[in-house]
Amino acid sequence: MPEPLEFDPIDRAGELWQQHWPDEDPDVYAAMRAVTSIMRAHQILLAELDAVLRPFGITFSRYETLVLLVHASRGALPLSKIGERLQVHATSVTNVIDRLEGAGLVRREPNPRDGRGTLAVITAEGRDIAAKATAELNSCRFAMSALPRGDLDQLFAVLRKLRLDAADFRA
């Protein structure tokens, strides 16, 4: 891991932004700092979560898919439903299912309700990996141990507003 910087590069970028565009509304500077912080936090969290999951041979996106299948009533979902629930493109779902199937954690089956569709079905090994990975993620608080519960609740509420505004879901 590299040494920490002696300054906050996002704060510095915000100061430079203000110097180069001094006539902008101050909300623009705040928005730039916020979005850049969110993007950096995403990088940090994904790296930490993937490191926690590496011993199980999965990434966070594969973990999300396994957990979705664990929670499905029959341990199976159409690939299209997986994409819808995880809010990812069909190509991403195919890639994740290919990897999980190659590892023996899911299998594909024809969808009996739709002759053209395919179901992803979690295997016993997939359930075992999901349970063990969940225990690890729970023990490290999903890499969010730097924040107390109140901050986590507040962060969720703030980001939920952003997601609502983007029509990510209906309230």
Overview of the structural elements:
The protein is mainly α and 171 residues long. Helix content is 62%, strand content 8%. The protein has one domain (9-164): Orthogonal Bundle (Arc Repressor Mutant, subunit A), CATH 1.10.10.10. The chain has seven helices and three strands. The protein has a three-stranded antiparallel beta sheet with strand order 1-3-2. Helix 3 packs across helix 5, helix 3 crosses helix 6 and helix 4 (79-86) packs across helix 5. The longest helix has 28 residues, at 26-53. The radius of gyration is 20 Å and the shape is elongated. The model has no long low-confidence stretch (mean pLDDT 95).
Instruction: Please tell me the overall pLDDT.
Output: 95
Multimeric state: single chain
Instruction: Indicate the radius of gyration in whole angstroms.
Output: 20 Å
Structural class: mainly alpha
CATH architecture type: Orthogonal Bundle
**Name of the level-1 CATH class:** Mainly Alpha
